[in-house]
Amino acid sequence: MKCYRCRSPLGAGKVCLHCGADVSVYKKIVRISNSYYNKGLEKARAHDLTDAAEYLNRSLHFDKYNTAARNLLGLICFETGEFVDGMCQWVISVNLQPEDNPAARYLETVQTDKKGLERCNQAVRKYNQSLDYARHDHDDIAILQLKRVVLQQPHYIKAHQLLALLYLRNDEYSHAAKLLKHILQIDRGNLFALHFSKKTGSRADREAREREKEKERLEQQIREAEGEEAIVPAVHERSGPARTLIGIAAGFT
């Protein structure tokens, strides 16, 4: 532990031996920060990333120099697809603790992987474009764009959430349910996924039952038709012009 005023190592007493500052209250604050960090670490190990991030932010609220909490928060940001936020946390961490800081290694690893970094940037740009499409009711284009994003970045939770919302808005509950399940596999405490999973679960199950009933009905018709003889007409009439209705899934302007 270091003094809040001069950043010199502190002893067991209530006063900094280097600058003479009273550090009794500061030590209590640091202990609270470390307690929140430990809770955040426990949640992160249990894949409850939402609660983990909340505890880590509380830790940093009490002690901004808690680089262990800041580094873990950066890792959680990366795990959930928030690449820029993760790198920002590590940059701040390195500035606060230039020596013996794992964040420096994290940054070097990310910056060395130029292709990976470009893929991350592209995912963010495509997400922002999709969000703009969705705001202007171009759901079909937004869905196509987001499907590519989540395929390239399977842990980009924001993209999964927006795609799930668009599926819900278009009454495609089974597709939304799959996305929500995937989100919860990454982050068990994701409030968005927990909330909408309750709403989509019953509807998705109902859709599955209806599809199963339709399948059984068709199979029954096939079984009944197997015992019938084909009726061949004696005279073939010319049929009129066929009219085909083609549904366009997405309209590009």
By secondary-structure content and strand pairing, the structural class works out as mainly alpha
The arrangement of helices and strands along the chain is: HHHHHHHHHH
Q: Beta-strand level of the residues, as a percent range?
A: under 5%
Average of pLDDT? 83
Amount of helix: 55-70%
User: What composes the largest sheet?
Assistant: none
Total beta-strand segments: 0
List segments where confidence is low: pLDDT < 50 over at least 5 consecutive residues.
228-253
- Calculate the terminal CA-CA distance, rounded to whole Å: 60 Å
Evaluate the radius of gyration: 28 Å
* Overall shape: elongated
| Tally of contiguous helical segments | 10
Oligomerization: single chain
Write up this protein:
With 253 residues, the protein is mostly helical. Helix content is 68%, strand content 0%. The protein contains ten helices and no strands. Helix 6 (114-135) runs antiparallel to helix 7 and helix 7 (139-152) packs antiparallel against helix 8 (157-169). The longest helix has 36 residues, at 191-226.
Overview features:
mainly alpha; about 250 residues; single chain; 10 helices; elongated
